[in-house]
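Q: Predict the bound structure with iron/sulfur cluster.
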Amino acid sequence: MEIKTFENIDRIYIDQSAVESSVAQRVYALFPVDKIEVVSQKPLSQLEGRMSSEDFNKSKRNLYITEYKGEFFKRCPGAKPGLTCCNYFVLNLGLQCNMNCSYCYLQSYINTPVMTIYSNLEKALSELKSIANENPEKYFRVGTGETVDSLSLDEITLYSRRLIEFFKDLPKWKLEFKTKSSKVDQFLDVPHAHNVICSWSVNPQNVIDSEEHNTASLEQRLTAAEKCLSKGFTIAFHVDPMIWHPDWKLNYSNLVQSITKKFSPQDLIYITVGALRFQPEQRHIMRERFSSQNMVNTAEMFQSKDGKMRYDQNLRTEMFEYIQSEFKKRNSSYRVSLCMEVPETWSMTMASSPSQIPELKDLFVGGR
Ligand code: SF4
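A: Predicted complex:
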């Protein structure tokens, strides 16, 4: 069941430097004042670096509003040796997530006991403006959902509204929100340049129930996507991470059925597919935080060339081909691609790399 953003936050810390920011002002308007504390240094820093699984759980309920001091704009983590990935840029507007997926990769590297929202969005936008000015002949694709879900805290920040407005002046660029929430109502009225992709990671409802705690149900995600489509936003789905379980074929077939019942190939700019993967050091915290019997903790995984634990190559190939065929048998025009996979998988499956699909080439390959 999707969490209600405001009820699940116990305490909000606002750094002195961020008190005047729009997000801090919004926090004052939305939350009871006794939940809010202005601080001059990072709160709970005594826990930093040696967090227990309980500390990690609590970090999702403590919100910290502060400025980000470094550079906002960096390359997608998929662009590493050993991985084939789309040309993609990441804009991190916070750190940690108020939802709770068993496989979440944030568990492998977050060592701070607060969920952070960066208050200086305008600095991020000024960096983007400089990149646009320095590269007038290129266009970029920018995603916001790497270290924080793009939309699950957006009722607090309303950053989606500002970003959509900003990208209206960069019509050749693409902005992508990636989410497992259903929180879209706060930006549906914003005029845009038809360059905003709203995308959902989706799984069958039984996988959501078992592994994606506090996220929106499949039905809620699809309904949110319908709302965005009705306002002219571009829609995409990530069937990712696919998680093996005894009835996986039936359940993923039903998932594809649910999507294709509501969305024609023309409604979806792309569908990407990926399978469960995580860093080896993540296993112990997943076991501590979630049932030892869940789908992720009982999975048989092997270390792949990029160091991550993945299913056996043949199983991954079977899973990707199955999803591809489920879409194609309903309508061969659905555009299905892999992402965050090692090159061997691209060559072993009939799924294409984004650059091999004419409709996707412009979207995924930055710079022309
Ligand atoms: S929605 Fe994404 S960031 Fe949030 S817990 Fe799940 S995997 Fe992690």
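A: The radius of gyration is 20 Å.
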